[in-house]
């Protein structure tokens, strides 16, 4: 991916940071988009220490003006954007009957609306330059499954929306040569699931439901994202690729 320009949202930590590192290692200039300025700077420094090129931009994916400013800055500085990794996401784990509308709206705003705003903004730039490019959305196995281990209705619903958004945008933008795919990770060892792993019982149940018998690492997901973003996946669009150790195969 030498010379490609990639924007990764939620790139300061976890899957996003691992993906930024993977894309940079493959030769892409990587824009680390995140609200956490300190962690973003650390990610940029880590990429630089490994010989890659990256820079940070503070972006709130729930705000249309912030999203549009992110991609305008990337195009102004680098001349183009070739790859978007739509990774920013949150979870508020509560039973449906106890979930407030405010908390529902917070999850939907980041996980669903934020992904749409980012995809729409980057596509406008890609189409204006004549087409071509790759979008990879980070969905979840919970977008393809009802879960069952604990109540998480807002997350499951929003990730289900990401799955079908991926398919719909892949069809809409195919005439422009823009590929849109998604990964559906299982439980990944990040801060997002750290509270879950404090329970030995829940951790054991997760592992029991995973044929490969382990949690995913951020690098496992980043490798799949890098593949879908790369020319090697040039005939793949509208695909939702589980990175789940066999979770969904059962």
Topology of helices and strands:
Elements: E1 5-9, H1 14-25, E2 29-33, H2 37-49, E3 54-57, H3 64-78, E4 83-86, H4 101-128, E5 133-138, H5 153-173, E6 178-185, H6 194-197, H7 200-208, H8 218-229, E7 240-243
Parallel strand pairs: 1-2, 1-4, 2-3, 4-5, 5-6, 6-7
Helix pairs in contact: 1-8, 3-4, 4-5
Structure description:
The structure is a single chain. With 250 residues, the protein is an alpha/beta fold. The protein has eight helices and seven strands. Strands 3-2-1-4-5-6-7 form a seven-stranded parallel sheet, sandwiched between helices. The chain is globular.
- Give the biggest sheet: 7 strands, parallel
What do the pLDDT scores average to? 96
Strands, total number: 7
CATH topology: Rossmann fold
In brief:
Helix content is 46%, strand content 14%. The chain has 250 residues and is α/β, with parallel strands linked by helices.
List keywords for this structure.
250 residues, alpha/beta, Rossmann fold
